[in-house]
Structures are given as structure tokens and as C-alpha cells.
Amino acid sequence: MGNVILKTDKLCKSFRSGTQEQQVLKDMDIEIYERDFTVIMGSSGAGKSTLLYALSGMDRPTSGTIRFFDAEIASLNNDKLAVFRRQNCGFVFQQMFLLDNMSILDNILASGLLTSNDKKPIIAYAKDLLTKVGLTETIWRKFPNQLSGGENQRAAIVRALINKPKVVFADEPTGSLNSAAGKAVLDVLTDVNNSDQSIIMVTHDLHSARRGNRILYIKDGVIGGECNLGKYVSGDKQRHEKLQSFLSEMGW
What is the count of structural domains for the chain? Predict the structure, then answer.
């Protein structure tokens, strides 16, 4: 188990609609460890994505604290929070937010050049990642509106990884992909995790969840249980059975 890189204390998130208030996250205390592949699971509406957005600084909690490395990010102003995210975080969310007027490669390079002016290694790394997720050279110069949803999702994942962030946040990264493309994406995430990058991934997919070494299950706005699987090894049937047993206990 590595060092704690992200820690919450009594994290709460509520949403208000008229006079009604819905509390989605309730006094959550969580520790995320360096080099872990942490998977967040739970039933629909349990607050998985809400938690991910809060942990990544993309959304502010209603109350509580979030310590990310040495920063208490919930109290940072918007400008400082944006700089912090750019330097430390990569994001793969359900909406891809690729720029329609830029090619796939330029979308990725634009993100990479936010943290470095050395273009040559960024281009080399972008091309390597694009190849690993199954996007061939003929696709690199195409625009998002010329590609399928699955191709755009894989490009968005490369963009999230281009700066070699300390933590990659992924919300259903294989949700729009077929099995072959999904496996390619999960292989890349596993590779970067094995290279000491931390992953926090929300998923409802059992095959994706098996890639994690630690599973957190959200139930009624709190962490209902935890399962530790160890490092991923392809073809490990005991891993699959252990995860299924845990999820059954959680009522998944």
C-alpha cells in the first residue's frame, strides 16, 4: 500500500431543487493511495460520478474537506484549482469535450502544451498512446465529427494521459466502446498504472472493474464496503470470483 495521496473528511454533497434538498454524499471519509487502481462502483444514482467530480476538483462539495497531496482543494479559488488540476490530474468523462475545429492529434497536443513547451516528446508520446488505443495514423488528422463515438472516446483518453498526470480520473471510460476497443483502453490504463500513475475509475462494468486492485462500493451516499483484489493479472479466475462475491454481498 502506497502513501495516501487523496483524503476526504466528512465529505458531503447535496443538490437542491426548489424547496427539496437531496443529499447524495454523506460524511464520506476516504483515503486513496499512491499507485492504486481504485474502482468506484454502486447502483445507479448512488453518487459514483458525484464523488468522482468532487475528488477531482471538478465540483465543489457542500461541506467537508478534500486533501489532494498537500493541498486542501475544496478551499482553493477557481484559478488556483484550475492550475492544480492541470498539473496533477487527467480526466476521462462521459462527455468528451474534444474541440470540433481541431484534428484529433491537435486536440491532444493542445492539452500537452499547456504544461510543456517541448513539442517533440509530446508528439512522440501522443502517437505512441494513440497507437496503443487502436487509433491508426489515418485517424490522427481527422476531426471529431468525422469519427465514431468510440474513436472519439479513445482520443479523449489519450488527451487525459498526455501530461502523465499523477492521478487519472475516469468516468465509465469504456461505456461507449465495443469489447475490443474497451480492452485496448483498459490495457492502456493498466499500463500507466503499472508505471506508477494512480487511477480512480467509476464503472458499472464487471470486466472493467476487474482491472482495479481496490473496489469501493457506494451505497446510500456512504462507502458500503471495500474489496482488495491485488494487482491485475489477466486470466485470474479467482479474481473474477472474488469480485462477483463481493458485489453480490453489496446487493449489486
Answer: 1
**Strand, coil or helix: 195:** coil
Task: Identify the bridge partners of residue 168 per DSSP, sorted by sequence position.
Answer: 90, 199
Grid cell of 12 as nine digits: 458531503
Residue 1: the pLDDT is 64
Could you tell me if 82 and 55 are in contact, meaning their C-beta atoms sit under 8 angstroms apart?
A: no
Nearest Cα to Cα of residue 175 among 152, 159, 200, 158: 152
Range of the domain at 131: 4-250
Q: Provide the β-strand partners of residue 22.
A: 15
Task: Decide if 1 contacts 33 (C-beta within 8 A).
Answer: yes
Of 115, 152, 150, 149, give the one whose Cα is nearest residue 140. 152
DSSP three-state, residue 17:
strand
pLDDT tens column, 3-43: 999 999 999 999 988 788 889 999 999 999 999 999 999 98
101-139 per-position pLDDT tens digit:
999 999 999 988 887 778 899 999 999 999 988 899 999
In the chain, alpha helices (H): 48-55, 78-88, 104-112, 119-132, 137-140, 149-161, 179-194, 206-209, 237-250
192, 161 in Cβ contact below 8 A?
Answer: yes
Q: What's the whole-model pTM score? A: 0.91
CATH of the domain at 118: 3.40.50.300
